[in-house]
Design a protein that fits this description.
With 220 residues, the chain is mainly α. Helix content is 73%, strand content 3%. The chain is globular and about 55 Å long.
Length: 220
Amino acid sequence: MLQQIEPFVGPEINWFAFSPMLTLLVGTLVLMLVGALTPQWPKGLYAFATATIAGAAGVLAMVQWDDITDNGTRTLVGGVIADDTLSMFITITICIGVILVALLSDDYLRGTPNDGPEMYALYMVAAIGGIVMALREDVGLSWLIVAAVVLLGAIANQRQGAGRWVFGAGAVTASFCWFGALGFGARFLAPLFESVRAWRVLDGLIALTMWALAAALLSG
């Protein structure tokens, strides 16, 4: 006799707690859609729209901060994500950063191949990744991948004719090689990284790489 299958009950989701990220996500989709269907916008309008969306997300984060202060820390999606004042502080800081970057980069992007909604959409998608990483690190990695896809699409769109498809094919191939090497390499290097010293060496190499990139950007 077949056993009775219990109905699946999903976790309760407080959608308002996700309102800053949802605002950035919906704003990004609207900006990309409208920007693709309309001619080039007047100067500063892409930046103004991005700053307005990020400002609305920041205001919603402030409202949630006040609610958390009154009612205490809470967990979301069945305890997977922690919603506290620190995550709201990071959310507000990221939103302020998006506003500043959008307004300050408008003059620089004007007249270049990157003058379009793609770059501003990238700002907001990257902001979503940063916010989710503040809540839960492993979920945020997926949003960073989405940001990388938007960035690659914006760069490929600068090419003419078949060049954009060649660039896209090369990016996809490089992604397969990178993630494949990352997965199989992690398996073979697992015994090595059981040592604390190995992690310290790796962190040191990453730090040196970041400092070298920063020096190259400053000198260039």
